[in-house]
Amino acid sequence: MNKSNHKLEGISALIFDMDGTLVNTEKLKFKTYNYFLNQLGLSKENELFEVYVSLVGSTDLDAAKEIFNHFNINKYLPHNKYKVNEPWVIFYNEILNIFYSKIGTDIAIKNEIFKETLEILDRAKSLNKKIAVATSSTTKEATRILKVISVFGKLDCLVTKDNISNPKPHPEIYLKTLSALKIDISKQKVLCFEDSLKGIISAEKANLNWVGVPNQFTSETLKLNLELDQKRICYNKEDLLSVIQYATN
């Protein structure tokens, strides 16, 4: 029996976060914010990194609002379009435009896949496991990215920020995913893959089994959290199968 087949025995469904878990869009989004700040003449990459790390797992709009306020963007762009009740929404849309046109292109996304988690997804699909993605991205953006990385057509379910009222770390997104999959966790085993602390907390609150697959933006936060079972976190992607085995025993 294939080693990865063995590790997935007894699992009825696998649920994957998208950003930072299947594809390193966190890196591309960070680059987009850094590009915007550089256009303003602000060389703030190190400071931006610290702020961005604290926001991973948030919705894109919430992240944009925090970055907008932290760097006091209004001070540098005193245009009428920013003098509205929610100026960060305009900022968010400008960031999206840069992301689509310059940084987060289809080619860039294809070059930032996490092949280890994608291989697990493909193996689970071949074993007729149910597959879902639960992401804080919008349905439009998630659909685009999942199609680019050839995952969308493999899904039994996609739940996004558009389908919920309470973002991660609230468990709503996972509870809705379970409902859509028609999974009863008292009878069936589910395994979640998350890169961020917010995502892991969301999975735990939904009483779901999880594996952490951190990236350069989330690794340190997870390492420093003493409440997490560190054996569930795969800091070296080559160890993913053994981490899965531990998490599912």
Q: Which tags fit this structure?
A:
about 250 residues, alpha/beta, five-stranded parallel β-sheet, 13 helices, 5 strands, elongated
Mean pLDDT: 94
Overall morphology: elongated
Distance between the ends: 18 Å
The percent range for strand residues is 5-15%
Q: How many individual β-strands?
A: 5
Uncertain segments are none
As laid out across the biggest beta sheet, the strand order is: 3-2-1-4-5
Number of helices: 13
State the secondary-structure class: alpha/beta
What oligomeric state do the depicted chains represent? single chain
- Written as H for each helix and E for each strand, in order along the chain, the element string is HEHHHHHHHEHEHEHEHH
Largest sheet: 5 strands, parallel
Rg over CA atoms, rounded to whole Å, is 18 Å
- Binned, the helix content reads 40-55%
